[in-house]
Amino acid sequence: MPIHISRFFALASLCCAAIPLAAQAPNKSAFVALLGKDTLFVEQYTRTGNHVTGDLVQRQPATVVTHYDITLDASGRVAMIDLGQRKPDGSMGPNFVQAGKLTFANDTVAIEVTRDTTVRRRFAANGAFPTLGPSVGLTEVILSQLKRAKADSVDVSVVGMGSQRPGTIAVKFFGDSARVWNSGFAMHYRVDAQGRVLAVNGQETTQKYQARKTASIDLPAIANGFAAADAAGKGFGGPASPRDTARANGIWVDYSRPAARGRDVWKSGVLGDTLWRTGANAATQFHADADLTIGGATVPAGTYTLWTHTIKDGAQYELVFNKQVGQWGTEHHAEQDLVRVPLTVSGLSPAVERFTIAVGDGAIKLQWGTQQLSVQFTQK
């Protein structure tokens, strides 16, 4: 069982003996995160003694640069973090954090965030660490502290600029890797003996990106390049998986449309999942005004969620109609399944870049990459 963070710090104060942070040599890191062939974010940071400074450039939907400065206490716990967000040219964007500060003291956290106005909050946060989206630098602060204290399995409290109360992530080390559970998903980090991050694998999360460490990056040039692409209408393309609706013959399907981005989307199931949400983000919803016969099975009129089940590592597929609706696309309860119907696999040419569901001519078709999955239906 994981040790909770408050108990962990109590143990760490007794057992942890290491080189004082202030005496440690500067350590510089840079990461490039890829979603398929597309760059999702870049980050560079430097840890010098009790300070970590870094810059995170994100592209979803438009380019934003976040600069952060972390002050650690002698044990490696975060005492304070300051951050601000800007466009690459230094100007502000809508709802950007002009200035933000989290101060950790006496088992509480004080938050001060300035956007159009300044908001201040304070609440209990025993042994908490700050969090900032996909930041590798802030995760490394957590992992290095846990390594320093020789922790193996710990529940860690985390607080972001918008938090009303602490959240919790679960960290477990396996040799040279760390698994970080957050909201039910596992992000994997390859780390060295000091807990410094060497690589990031998000294949088991809904975001599916991977981040690799690189010797150095020209962050201003990269950020300006992203901004130029945004201005030319060739940026990241808005939401990674925009919502869409397919309609025909008294049927509608509401779903999100991820892009292939150079990936073999049908490898090891669908994007590595054996049970796929048939899209992205919130669960894909299917509605029929009349009773249907789909793939030989009866589907009464009503609303369902759709799931794609992979059999024999992609040799066969099933379309699953589930009676639960309105949930996020990772929440599937098999006991709520209505029917599972076999899908026919066929090729597509040219390839379809963005996942598409087509309904019509008596068929439901799932099209992505160079493959189509389909099933016939009739109205009763």
What does this structure look like?
With 380 residues, the protein is mainly beta. The protein has two domains: 3-225; 243-379, no CATH class. The protein has helices at 5-15, 136-148, 219-231, and strands at 3-4, 27-35, 38-48, 51-58, 64-72, 78-86, 99-105, 108-114, 118-124, 129-130, 153-159, 167-174, 177-182, 185-191, 197-201, 210-213, 243-248, 251-256, 275-276, 285-288, 292-294, 297-299, 302-311, 316-322, 337-360, 363-379. β3 (38-48) and β4 form a beta hairpin. The protein is elongated and about 70 Å long.
Major sheet attributes: 16 strands, mixed
**Count of distinct strands:** 26
What structural class do you assign from the helix and strand content? mainly beta
Low-confidence stretches: 7-19
Round the mean pLDDT to the nearest integer and report it: 90
Q: Based on CA inertia axes, which overall geometry fits?
A: elongated
User: In percent, how much strand structure appears in the residues?
Assistant: over 45%
Work out the helicity level.
Answer: under 10%
Please provide the ordered H/E string of secondary-structure elements: EHEEEEEEEEEHEEEEEEHEEEEEEEEEE
Distance between the termini: 53 Å
Specify Rg, calculated over alpha carbons: 24 Å
The number of distinct helices, counting runs of at least 4 residues, comes to 3
What is the quaternary state of this protein? single chain
User: What is the count of structural domains?
Assistant: 2
Concise summary:
It is built from three helices and 26 strands. The chain has helices spanning 5-15, 136-148, 219-231; strands spanning 3-4, 27-35, 38-48, 51-58, 64-72, 78-86, 99-105, 108-114, 118-124, 129-130, 153-159, 167-174, 177-182, 185-191, 197-201, 210-213, 243-248, 251-256, 275-276, 285-288, 292-294, 297-299, 302-311, 316-322, 337-360, 363-379. The longest helix has 13 residues, at 136-148.
